[in-house]
Design goal:
Helix content is 24%, strand content 24%. The protein is α+β, with helices and mostly antiparallel strands. It has one domain: Double-stranded beta-helix, CATH 3.60.130.10. The strands form 4 sheets. Strands 1-2-3-13-5-15-4 form a 7-stranded mixed beta sheet, with helices on one face. Strands 11-7-8-16 form a 4-stranded antiparallel beta sheet. A 3-stranded antiparallel beta sheet has the order 12-6-14. The N and C termini lie far apart (40 Å). It binds N-oxalylglycine and manganese (II) ion.
């Protein structure tokens, strides 16, 4: 029997009594309802194959291709040849960038719906994945702040977020480095299924039309500081075989640091957003246009 136990914070539930690789339609309906209610689900000890992990993701929608034409990619400091990445490598810098609170693909025209991570190899300590509940973050803002941010939007860019994290700010060819305008997204997002409002912020947000960049970053930092604290944060300590999925439309996440001389291997299947609700307008090229990184938000 499917057993759903809420986590000890405003988001998330831990689900046992189910084999995700062999799920009935009735079980899937329970999982989908719990996903909408809790925003994130933890399934311990699933030990899925790549194919099972992808099939689970496909229950939620189409899969985003992040690299190499693959629906499942390794998020890891260990390369295919078995060696560990070095700090000057771009993918190492992406991993370190993941240590700032963010939501996946918000810097792409179509932001992600959900991300499902599964652990294969975990470091001896650290390397948790943390989640923060942007529904409760919005609900608990004071009325003045709610009024102040209603109607505001921010540009989202991986150039800007990597620059804020202290990495070189240059045009790349890979996934996520847009060559046209950055997407512009409202700070307050209404969930397309539940209708709940949430803060849509995180490290990729960097510029608010109508505000000086410094003032915009200060506002974004202030909102993030309020948002990402107890009782809205869950920290998942991985065991190999665990799977965790979250709703990128209302949950922020980040990786916690670990000793990068040890391997950490997670598998990531990212579910694409529905264009009806996750497709943003892209404006003129907001990539480097006068942007000076003002604060590290990690
Ligand atoms: C990601 C990500 C977090 C982690 O893969 O998008 O943010 O803990 N991962 O590795
Ligand atoms: Mn991420």
């Amino acid at each position: 029997m499917v057993d759903i136990v809420p986590l000890d914070c405003t988001l998330g539930a831990r689900i046992t009594g189910i084999a995700l690789g062999d799920m009935s339609d009735g079980e899937w309906r329970e999982v989908e309802d719990a996903f909408h209610e809790y925003g994130a689900l933890v399934f311990p000890a699933q030990h899925l194959t790549d194919e099972e992990h992808i099939a689970f993701g496909e229950r939620f929608g189409g899969i985003e291709i992040l690299r190499d034409g693959a629906k499942a990619v390794r998020v890891s400091n260990r390369k295919d040849d078995g060696t560990l990445m070095k700090p000057e490598e771009k993918r190492y810098q992406t991993l370190r960038g993941n240590e700032g609170w963010h939501t996946d693909s918000s810097y792409m025209p179509l932001a992600a719906k959900a991300s499902a991570l599964a652990a294969e190899i975990t470091p001896s300590k650290g390397g948790e994945t943390e989640l923060a509940d942007m529904r409760d973050a919005y609900d608990t803002l004071d009325e003045d702040t709610k009024e102040r941010i209603a109607g505001l939007s921010a540009y989202h860019s991986l150039y800007a977020s990597q620059a804020k994290a202290g990495f070189e700010f240059k045009t790349g060819e890979g996934y996520g480095y847009h060559t046209r305008g950055a997407p512009l997204r409202p700070l307050v997002k209404t969930h397309p299924v539940t209708g709940r409002k949430s803060l849509f912020i995180g490290r990729h947000a960097f510029r608010i039309p109508g505000m000086a960049d410094g003032d915009a970053q200060a506002l974004l930092d202030e909102l993030l500081d309020h948002a990402c604290r107890a009782p809205r944060v869950y920290s998942h300590s991985w065991e190999p075989g665990d799977l965790m999925i979250w709703d990128n439309r209302c949950i922020l996440h980040r990786a916690m640091p670990y000793d990068y001389s040890e391997p950490r291997v997670l598998r990531h299947v990212r579910v694409a957003g529905d264009p009806a609700s996750e497709l943003a307008e892209t404006g003129r090229d907001e990539r480097a246009d006068g942007f000076e990184p003002v604060a590290a938000n990690r």
